[in-house]
């Protein structure tokens, strides 16, 4: 049994999602969005840090997964996104929680089967995979998708580690 926290960072809205893994099953715990007021950037980073810290204290996740920074068209936006990621990562590291980072394309590939999936496809697959009654809000769905991607990656690594032999590049 392990609780995984997924984070979709943003300087205006930071999505979060928590999933409990029991054996090979995933069980939805909660998800939502940390909404950041229109204040200075340092104050917004504090809101993100405090919000993620509060969630960590309440749910006590064992793993933390977050989206990697991608190069946006606007360098200023990419820098703000990187700072928002940093605030969330520091909240996890302060509680000695291992941090894992995933590219957006890898997350989409793991959840929908294509790295070019749109937001609606991700929302739909998160709803289906976690057996939710309705699609989660966009940023929350992305955070849950990141957590699911981490779970899939960890399960794949465990399978590889327990494989006894390889034949022509295939696990036997």
Descriptors:
172 residues; alpha/beta; two-stranded antiparallel ribbon; 5 helices
Helix/strand layout:
Elements: E1 2-8, E2 13-22, E3 25-35, H1 41-59, E4 63-67, H2 75-94, E5 99-102, H3 104-112, H4 119-129, H5 138-162, E6 166-167, E7 170-171
Parallel strand pairs: 1-4, 4-5
Antiparallel strand pairs: 1-2, 2-3, 6-7
Helix pairs in contact: 1-2, 3-5, 4-5
Report on this structure.
The protein has 172 residues and is of the alpha/beta class. It contains 5 helices and 7 strands, in the order E-E-E-H-E-H-E-H-H-H-E-E. Helix 1 packs parallel to helix 2, helix 3 packs across helix 5 and helix 4 packs across helix 5. The longest helix is centred in the C-terminal third of the chain and has 25 residues. The chain is globular. The mean pLDDT is 89.
SSE class: alpha/beta
Alpha-carbon Rg, integer: 16 Å
What summary fits the major beta sheet? 5 strands, mixed
Instruction: Give the total of beta strands.
Output: 7
Q: What is the CA–CA distance across the termini?
A: 27 Å
Low-confidence stretches: none
Strand-residue proportion: 15-25%
Output mean pLDDT: 89
Give the helix tally.
5
- Which overall shape is indicated by the principal axes computed on the Cα atoms? globular
**How are the strands of the largest sheet arranged?**
3-2-1-4-5
Determine the fraction of residues in helical runs and give it as a percent range. 40-55%
- Return the string of H and E elements: EEEHEHEHHHEE
